[in-house]
Specification:
The complex is a heterodimer of chains A (241) and B (292).
Chain A (H helix, E strand, L loop, with lengths): L2 E10 L2 E11 L4 E5 L6 H8 L7 E6 L2 E2 L5 H6 L2 E4 L11 H8 L6 H14 L16 H13 L5 E5 L7 H16 L3 E6 L2 H7 L2 E6 L2 E7 L5 H17 L1
Parallel strand pairs in A: 3-8, 3-9, 6-7, 7-8
Antiparallel strand pairs in A: 1-2, 1-4, 4-5, 9-10
Helix pairs in contact in A: 3-5
Chain B lengths: L1 H31 L6 H17 L4 H29 L3 H23 L4 E2 L8 E4 L2 E4 H23 L1 H11 L1 H6 L4 H27 L1 E2 L3 H16 L4 H21 L5 H15 L14
Antiparallel strand pairs in B: 1-4, 2-3
Helix pairs in contact in B: 1-5, 1-8, 1-9, 1-10, 2-3, 2-4, 2-8, 2-9, 3-4, 3-8, 5-6, 5-8, 5-10, 6-8, 9-10, 10-11
The chains are: A alpha/beta (241), B mainly alpha (292).
């Protein structure tokens, strides 16, 4: 098993966000985590990359217990987090942003070739190689953020809202790229608010509401409308309290 | 006119030393957002170690290298022992107070070990001069400038071209994202402090071997000059540290030569405050340049 999570609790100080998450991701699988705003999706990814230290529970990567470890140790074990809001190094150029993604790699020559290939493949940034990343459009930055994550040679890629704030055409392009990536066998844990896109990509889906998993199953067994129903129920439950 | 040029030349020599103090100081600020007010006392402590080694008969170059290593080690210890615990709890202001505390502790160690009297620094470079149409260019001035330019060019190349240099740049721009790249933040921060200590000691050893004297009060002078030079040049910018140091050195020499030696500090502070108000990003004046 690539990733196994048991009874995960996490939060920020006194604010508890995740209340006992059980989940897993197998090799080559794409798992989508859906849920409304504030459900704890980003916190889950932050816990799974060592940014946020869990208060209870266990995180295993390929059978190794990584609970409470630092972000660099997660990267060393092949878990790479592409954060929400892209988080470019704005005054470094695009190429340098990609290169720093491969910071831990020893095969530097190979890394350089992969950077070349990435620029050749992703047409919207081909000409933007020496431009400061902060000058790129949102869609271009999201592509660079994805590429920067890939340069670490991840076994498991954690993607936080890759469609957030992008123009529809940029979202289409991003998901086309992610589909190619999934077909090449890349394991992905994808967090999204946009259920329709995520369901089109993922093999399995988890619905997270109020820090708990309220649904888990293959994507074939759920429609975007049913996902929306979960969100809606959580809202009315909240209003009734 | 000759007199004016002479003052500028004198100022450039001192400016090279200031640049070496400012580069590490600015780097620490850029990477951590922290005023490293123990910088000068760390450098003077290490310079006293150099003094002790020379007095004990160690040749100059090994003594200098050892002193630079001590400067690096003490800087890292202050970061790990004082700044990090306070910083980690979100007490940025307390980290600043901690910096002042660390500076006093170092000064007291100097005092207990070497006493409060001004000491004669036992090494000086051969004091040759070059005469250019009435303007005397001391060899020491050329050495100071050469060291400053050499170190700053090397340092810029290190930041731009090497893996760990790029990690420092990334950390300065987004600490959280840098951690997600697999960068060990603690290690890179320690590297920043070590470099700031080692480079600064080179500047302070040049300084004391030019003035032939060493005294404990120099620590505060260094911190102050590093701060002013870093602000003038654009804090955190490596090249800015060079221009800031040189501008500071020349300004100081001109004030001494044409106004009054007693007015130097007052006027420098006025310039510092003016910069902080009108041009906080320094003479370069661009935010992106201020990012290393």
């Amino acid at each position: 098993m690539l990733l196994r999570v048991e009874g995960l609790h996490a939060g920020y100080g006194a604010t508890r966000v995740l209340h006992g998450i059980d989940m897993h991701v197998s090799e080559g699988e794409v798992v989508a985590v859906l849920g409304p705003n504030g459900a704890g999706k980003s916190t889950l990814l932050r816990a799974l990359s060592g940014v946020n230290t869990p208060t209870a529970g266990r995180i295993e990567v390929e059978g190794r217990d990584l609970t409470g470890r630092r972000p660099d140790e997660y990267v060393a074990c092949g878990v790479v987090h592409v954060p929400e809001g892209r988080r470019m190094f704005p005054y470094m150029n695009t190429e340098a942003n990609l290169r720093i993604g491969g910071f831990r790699r020893r095969d530097r020559g190979r890394l350089e070739r992969e950077i070349d290939e990435f620029f050749a493949h992703w047409e919207p940034i081909t000409e933007r190689r020496h431009v400061q990343a902060g000058q790129l459009s949102g869609g271009q930055q999201q592509i660079v953020a994805l590429g920067r994550g890939l340069m670490a040679n991840p076994k498991l890629l954690l993607l936080d809202e890759p469609s957030l704030g992008l123009a529809p055409v940029a979202v289409q392009r991003m998901y086309k790229g992610l589909r190619e990536l999934a077909e090449s066998g890349q394991s992905i844990l994808l967090v999204e608010q946009n259920a329709r896109h995520a369901l089109g990509l993922a093999d399995r889906v988890l619905v997270l509401v109020g820090g708990q998993v309220v649904h888990s199953g293959p994507t074939s067994e759920i429609t975007p409308e049913q996902v929306a129903e979960f969100y809606f129920r959580s809202t009315t439950k909240g209003a009734a309290q | 006119m000759t007199d004016f040029i002479q003052q500028v030349v004198n100022g450039l020599g001192a400016g090279g030393q200031y640049a070496l103090w400012a580069v590490g100081y600015g780097l620490v600020y850029q990477v951590l957002g922290l005023m490293h007010f123990a910088h000068g006392d760390t450098l003077i402590f290490a310079t006293f170690v150099c003094y002790a080694l020379l007095t004990a008969g160690v040749p100059f170059i090994p003594a200098l290298i050892l002193a630079m290593a001590v400067g690096a080690a003490v800087s890292v210890m202050i970061e790990k022992g004082v700044y990090r615990p306070l910083y980690a709890r979100g007490h940025l202001f307390l980290a600043f107070v901690g910096a002042l505390g660390a500076a006093y502790v170092l000064r007291n160690i100097d005092m207990l070990t070497w006493g409060v009297q001004t000491k004669v620094f036992p090494y000086s470079f051969s004091a040759g001069n070059i005469d250019l149409g009435g303007v005397t260019i001391p060899a020491m001035t050329l050495l100071n400038l050469g060291c400053a330019i050499g170190v700053i060019v090397a340092f810029e190349l290190f930041l731009a071209k090497t893996r760990y240099g790029q990690a420092i740049v990334a950390l300065a721009q987004d600490r959280g994202a840098a951690a997600l790249m697999g960068i060990k933040v603690g290690t890179v921060v320690a590297l920043v402090y070590a470099l700031s200590g080692a480079i600064g000691v080179l500047g302070s050893v040049l300084y004391v071997s030019e003035t032939h004297t060493i005294q404990i009060s120099l620590g505060f002078t260094i911190t102050l000059k590093a701060f002013i030079a870093a602000i003038i040049g654009g804090i955190g910018s490596v090249r800015g540290a060079l221009s800031g140091g040189l501008v500071l050195g020349v300004t100081e020499a001109l004030i001494q030569g044409y106004i009054s030696t007693l007015m130097v500090d007052a006027i420098l502070f006025a310039i510092l405050i003016t910069f902080l108000i009108i041009r906080p990003t320094g003479i370069g004046g661009r935010a992106d340049l201020a990012r290393l």
